[in-house]
Amino acid sequence: MEAEQDQQAAEPSEEPVEAEQDQQAEEPAEADQDQRADGPPETWQEHWFDHRQLLRLSYSDDDCAIYLDPDVRAAEAGWLPAYIGAVWRYSKATYGEAFGPDARIYSIHHAGRHGGGHAGYYVSPVHDHHNVSDCGLGSWRQSDTLAPELPCHEIGHTVESANNGRHGSPAYEIWGDSKWAEFYIYDVYTALGMTSHAKSVYRQFMGNRDDFPRRGTRWFRDWFFPLWRECGQAAVMDRFFRLLAAHFPSDSDGTYDRRMNWGEYVHFTSGAAGADLSRQASRAFGWPREWTAQLEAARDQFPDVTY
Length: 307
Prior knowledge:
Elements: H1 18-21, E1 43-45, E2 54-60, E3 64-68, H2 80-95, E4 105-111, E5 116-120, E6 132-137, H3 146-161, H4 172-175, H5 179-191, H6 195-207, H7 219-230, H8 234-247, H9 262-273, H10 278-285, H11 289-301
Parallel strand pairs: 3-4, 4-6
Antiparallel strand pairs: 1-2, 2-3, 5-6
């Protein structure tokens, strides 16, 4: 990951679903959660992972709740409500409203601690059944390129793992922590008219190389950007998630039963694109022999995914 290694400290380290499930046994702390009848609590005591700050509500509306830890300078965070609200409204308009009973994203911001970020989802008690982006930076000045990118990355995990009334990300082990995030961030910046930011991440993502599924893979250049450009921009991934929700195995509470293999991933992505993408996948990722059998099995198991 040559182009990404410089930012490893700023990227979340845990897998978006199971990282939280490991700590579900920890009960939410009730102290200092002065819950308002009409919305998010004025304070929120963290009780997940190594987080123990008492957060204070800086802003809330029907789309977002912004929480700051005591070391975040309010003057540096004034731009966050408009930005986080715009990202979440766009996400709901693009990927559907079925992200749980609370329409808000809960965006938590730390200064000088908890560098990077993680996401939380409404089905989990870890973050008190809220959809959460929890990020830490040295400061939250808008001019810092990571200040908009980190929460956008984490909100992308909520889109990935809590859409269409389903829980989990069958493709997580295919694309890892950051590859879908690159598609999502570039699309959000473009859609919101953040032209300079979109150009900046475009240059960065086009240059990124990864070691999976083979050394030197260029996920954005050879897979996700062509998919975005040629198949309806964000609409292609909306279709992908809807196809998963409609056809991929899940249990009675909507949690996906398992991860998908590469043949299934190519099959469902082809269904979303409306075209057989196996040749494109071969160019982007190589084509190990077992993928052919996986793809044939996927076509047999999911015949309603057509292209």
